[in-house]
Amino acid sequence: MEHIFFILIAGCSHDLSTCQVQEASQPFLGAESHCEEQLNRLMLETPAEWPVIEGRCVAAGTELVLAQPDPSELAS
């Protein structure tokens, strides 16, 4: 089934306490698998200006919530 997706790519600090959106794609219609393929390509093309690069396929209409990670979960 096809949906409208956006691809968001963020650069983050090592502890994920600071993140900044590096790239947001134009919306496109496609299957989730197509979005994942595009995400992988874009992640490889994103300059490594941050120690951690995070990317997500987001379906249109999805509510995005910015959350701070629990530091105890990062210390492993």
Write the layout of secondary structure elements.
Blueprint: E1 3-12, E2 19-24, E3 28-30, H1 32-45, E4 52-59, H2 71-74
Antiparallel strand pairs: 1-2, 1-3, 1-4
Task: Describe the model.
Helices cover 24% and strands 36% of the residues. By secondary structure, it is an alpha+beta fold. It has one domain. Strands 1, 2, 3 and 4 form a four-stranded antiparallel beta sheet that branches. β1 and β2 form a beta hairpin. It is globular. The N and C termini lie far apart (38 Å). The relative contact order is 0.31. The model has no long low-confidence stretch (mean pLDDT 80).
Structure summarized in a few sentences:
The chain is α+β, with helices and mostly antiparallel strands and 76 residues long. Helices cover 24% and strands 36% of the residues.
Features:
76 residues, globular, 24% helix, four-stranded antiparallel β-sheet, 4 strands, 2 helices
